[in-house]
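One chain is below:
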Amino acid sequence: MQSSSFSILLVKTSSIGDVIQTLPTLQYLRARFPEATIDWVVEESNASLLLASSLPSRIIVIDTKAWRSSLGAWKNFLSTLRNLRSKKYDLLFDLQGNIKSACVTFLARAKEKIGFDSTHVQERINLLVTTKKISLAKTVNAQMKYLQLIQHYFSDNAVFFPQPISMNLTFLEKSRLEDLLANRSLKEPMRLMIAAHSRWPNKEIQVETLCSLLTHISIQYSVCFVFVYHTKSEKQQADYMVQRFKSQSLCIGELSLPLWQNLMSKMDGVICVDSAALHLCATTDTPSFSIFGPSLADRYRPIGQQHFSVQGTCPYGMQFWSRCPLLRKCATGACVKNLDSSHLVNACSEWLATIKSRLQ
């Protein structure tokens, strides 16, 4: 298995947060099989991050939205099929566990196809396309879930410690990063990135609650807040926050994922909700403080003592082991929206103390 002819195909197509959480698995495989060919099947929208990581041997890009469109669907699908079947792999790991990845796993050629058992597959049809199913604890941390599947396959019980990843930047991205870091506001002793947005509004805390938390921090520390945004509505909120903390903040948008990750690595801490920002932070050495509600912190918080979190509670008694089944439907989002600012401040204070000790 150590020869350069040994080959592995990883199937993890989306979403961006899940793809990021799978990167330690790729690090593990690279450490175990340094000469092996390790390819990765991913959706086009997530390919830039993998390309910047330089970890996969080859990235096989798919566009399942194009498969479902009326124009050019067959042409796109046949191109994907040729890429998938151009090589026969020794091992294929389906780390997605749904219908989409089942299609890819079925079409790809491999001597053995490994995936999750019924506990962790998202859609049971996936069980039909794998030749070996790995059983894991139901409540295992999401990042560890992907790593443990592969370690269990190799009967490896050793503890693996993922390392920070240095994402490659283009010349223009490097220039912009230098310009951003030269900003006078970032000369403050403590630099905190604020990423308070999610694609799911029910994961976001109230703006005034966030303001209360940041006001407390600004009183206690000489700090610069870096508000990041990606959409027009997020920019409006970021502009509002900059007005609230005029001399201590700046807002930054239009960041590629590699540039965002590199900027994170220059921060002293990241405050965020359960989102891609949190998982991107986990690829750096930067501590995070994350706010959870309709998803469990124990399940999605990054591994490491530098990562702290606070968990909102459901006022309706809803219980779940991963994500709330009403994540997309809950009319109030009260588990996060009703978070008490004093509780948030108390939880964050311990995290800030650890950052202060790192800076000394």
